[in-house]
User: Fold this.
Amino acid sequence: MPAASAIAPDDVIIVGNSSDDPFAIDVAYTVGQAEDVADLISMKTFANTEFCPRFISDERDFSAIGRQLAGKTVVIVSTSSRVVSRQNLAMRNLLIARAAKENGAAQVMLVEPDLFYSAQDRGPGPNQGETLFDRDDKDRKKFDGQPFTARLYAQMLQLAGVDRVLTVHNHSHSVQAMFTEVFEGRFHNLIPYDIYCDYLLNSNIVNSADGGAGLALCAPDKGARDFVKEMFSRLQLPNAKLILLDKDRSGERKVEIKLHDESEAKFDEIAGRDVILFDDMVRTGSTVVQSCQFMRQMNPGRTIFAVSHFYASDEGREKMAHRAIDEILTLNTMPTVLNRDVQGRLRRKMVVLKIEKWLARNLCEILGLPAREDTGLYQIDMSSKNPRFLRKIWSNEQLDSLHAQPVDS
Assistant:
């Protein structure tokens, strides 16, 4: 993943795919952009509903028509929205990238924390998608009649003028290989190990004391194993345990959970320990709930589900309200998760780590910009309905004076 050549801060313009996207605004501010996103680009929509972005210029200056972005690097920060579909946002990305390039931009970079169309990461053809396993007819049949949309999206971005793509915790080997090929190595898949490690070690979400004697990390399936093993290594807790699970999917929502043959920890080593299960994404919540129910048979302490991309569907919210999950730790790669209405009843056990600062740091490193060292890695968003909320903002002495009255649950 080659970094860009170092560029001057004034030559970087950061915009969103909507003018009032708080995520894009926060990233721009952390990088050091003084201008408001809405003062840099106008998101016009014609009467026939067609979208037409326009980089704002001095109307009195006729000296650089079509060249106002000459030598500039334009960064498009693209996140999901409650009011605009992902298909619409994807098309906006293409038009903004083309507008930048046709106005002289030297480089266009797409920052899309939750990379669109990653679920459609292979096609029905034998060579449509690079996988770490041998594809059989059963796997190919799952994509029969569908487009290989992830590759199409990459090719369309490249055609529109995008030179570099940055995303967060994309689990698909096929997507990573294909985006790396299309963008000739200028694809950056950031894995948030440092965010999770910092929060787990410096908060009271789990018991990490005494070298992790009260903690176990769990990989619920094959796809999460490498990530969880690396997390285990980076936490440097010699007394923690690592447990690996397998899932056998017999239907769209029917999953059987069992202990993986090569799991370092066995069931009898989990009793009394806080267990944290990691995954890159959750949609329906079926697998994670079944995994947590399975782990509950081992009489653990608390059961925590940590996930990078939280798709807050109605079905997912309903299922993950199950008492088998004590708490949910997620990132705001999909910023809608910060909305209390979107969280629903899960706000009582949800913590969101806002990653704009961490993302801005990595963006500065890739572009060769000076990074602000005082920004930290993340900000914590926690509802007052969460029982840990008082412990987060009050001292133990203050809590004792209130006789540790429980928060409404």
Summary: The chain has 14 helices and 15 strands.
